[in-house]
Amino acid sequence: MRRWLIRVSFGIVGAAAVCLLFVWTGTLSPLNSSPNPDQSERSMSLGKAIYQSRCAICHGDDGKGEGRAAALLNPKPLDFTSGMYKIRTTESGSIPTDEDIARAITNGLHGSAMPDWGPFIHGDSLKAIITYIKLFSPRFKEEKPRIVHISSPVPSSESSIANGRRVYAKLQCASCHGTDGKGAGATATDLIDDWGNEITTANLTEPWTFKGGGTARDIYLRFRTGMNGTPMPSYIGSASEKEMWNLANYVVSLARKPVWAMNAEELKAFYAAADAEAKKNPVRRGKYLVESFCEGCHSGYSADGKVLPEFKLAGGLVFDLYPFGKFTSFNLTSDKETGLGNWTDAEIKRAITQGIQRDGSRLLPFPMPWTSIAQMPDDDVNAIIAYLRTVPPIRNKVPMPEKPNIFSYMWGKFEMLILKKDAPGYIYPMKDFRQMEHDAKSGTVGGQVSKEPQSTSANSLSSPLVAHNENPFGNEERGAQQ
Amino acid sequence: MKKFLRWSAIVIGCLVVVGFLAFLYFIPPLTMVPQTAFTQPLAQALDAPLKSIKDPAEKILAERGKMIVGHSACSDCHTPQGAQGPNYNEFLAGGGMKDEFKLYGSVVSRNLTPDKETGIGMRTDAEIMRVLRSGVSHDGRVMTPVYMPWFDFSNMTDEDRYAVVVYLRHLKPVWNKIPGYSPLSDFEKLSETAGDYAEHKSLH
């Protein structure tokens, strides 16, 4: 009897405890109350941390798409404050769903500098960064994404592709994309997006460069949803669902083989055609070469290491290479006084392939890599010159190389060759140099002092160009406080 | 005594002049060396990996890659420096460019040869192309701009980037260990990107 009583009382106590536990956790569970502020705060700081270390370099700290590398990238990074996303599964003009943003981050956007972040940003990090990005635009609070209904696909067949070709003509795709999908005979050639940036139409024969992907479903979605902020509209009113699927099948059928799938004969023919095309249109080839090799050094930078679009190709990056001297990248625009406007073609060619300046003096083999440009085929060098002639003039007076006096040069060489010291080299923008030097001297910059007297200031001057967003002086101060 | 001083001054003066001339003779200023002394060794080093390629398709791609690697001056930073200019025996083996930042750590050019342990032998094509397209290295770090001008190479076509990768795969593998990314011990304290640092740590 007593044992039974004990058992019952234990049971009652246990049940009460379980009930209490349920009640207690119930009050904490996010289902019953507002989300834990701690949790969301942590997620927010994680989002901010990821944004600043991974995204801000192109999209900017303020999300306006004006990060430090943005001016040189083509196409330009997205402006998050507008809420206009190109690759969506929502109606034209609508904001994207979270899945759309997640897909763009995970897979990247082909044909642009947006990489596939999938291996590095996933799970909670992905959620945090999406939440953070959405904060830039008030539209995400006010609106709801209007998701499109994707109709059942039309399987690819000869008749579907033939129909698609007719739709291509009917919708006047050729006016931007050309009759062959590569831009031949296109009438609208100077396209700009809503932010005033020049954009190029997609080459429809290269599906691996399509931002939203190259499958028929992806291409159908671009017709269905349009690409916000670009001249690519939604065709929902002007074409039926079936027509859009046929058109998607037609675009898929335009694809050519990429070089990684070609055999030797195809490659030979492909590169021969590319070279012939380059010879026919040297300005275009020159633009490609200059944009992919010259701009990084021959552009103006702000104090915090941002490429200034108004000083693109106007030079002004200082290379301080002890003991050889200070070299400032030259103004390559066609400005008569400060740029290449008065140079002849032969003078430019001599400078970039033999390292001989206009006055006949020689350049060192660095930092201007004329030894490398000397390896270029002649046609490409001519193409570069042809393009540089078309660059609009920008006035930016660049100082000539500053050479050290003979004694410090000799001493520097002695240090390098006999004492085996590493020669310090610094890179910093010319424009803000004076102001920053002043700051450095007046004691704003403290911390470790390196051996070379000039490197103390130069080291901190070059640090803005490191992949971090903070002002180095701000960092110093914070370091000192802690 | 006066005579002795004068003579010793003359001797020292002569020695200085002779020494200076000898120095100039053995290590002339770079602007006195003929241009071909710079361009020819580079051209030879660039051509060397092409000879051993058997597959005709790969050979054409590698030739294209060689052209791009040649004129984009990869070798200027990525070839180790000997006493007298770049050491082309270890073409593109990294370490030619070093810089230290007191706040962030060091910048050292990577080993681009297909060495399995220290070079790109352990990196996939996609990883190498991601570096060239977006400046994101295999561990997810955004590369130091200006030093590695990825925002220039980002404007290349994917096909050209692929040709570069094919060429790099055929370089002579050189074992040259480059120190990894080494944030300073107080990196976490100094940086607002503590979350990023934690992420970076978990990847290693």
Q: Would you mind describing this structure in some detail?
A:
The complex is a heterodimer of chains A (482) and B (204). Chain A has 482 residues and is mainly α. Chain A has helices at residues 2-28, 37-59, 98-107, 124-134, 139-142, 158-170, 174-177, 216-225, 241-253, 264-280, 282-293, 345-354, 370-373, 378-390, 406-417, 433-441, 453-462, 472-481; strands spanning 317-321, 325-328, 425-429. In chain A, strands 2-1-3 form a three-stranded antiparallel beta sheet. In chain A, helix 16 (433-441) crosses helix 17 (453-462). The longest helix of chain A has 27 residues, at 2-28. The radius of gyration of chain A is 30 Å and the shape is globular. Chain B is mainly alpha-helical and 204 residues long. Chain B has a two-stranded antiparallel ribbon. A two-stranded antiparallel sheet of chain B has the order 3-4. The relative contact order of chain B is 0.12. Residues 184-204 of chain B have low confidence and may be disordered. Chains A and B meet through helix 2, helix 10, helix 11, helix 13 and helix 15 of A and helix 2, helix 3, strand 3, helix 5 and helix 6 of B.
Descriptive keywords:
heterodimer; A: 482 residues; mainly alpha; Cytochrome Bc1 Complex, Chain D, domain 2; 3-stranded antiparallel β-sheet; disordered C terminus; B: 204 residues; two-stranded antiparallel sheet; elongated
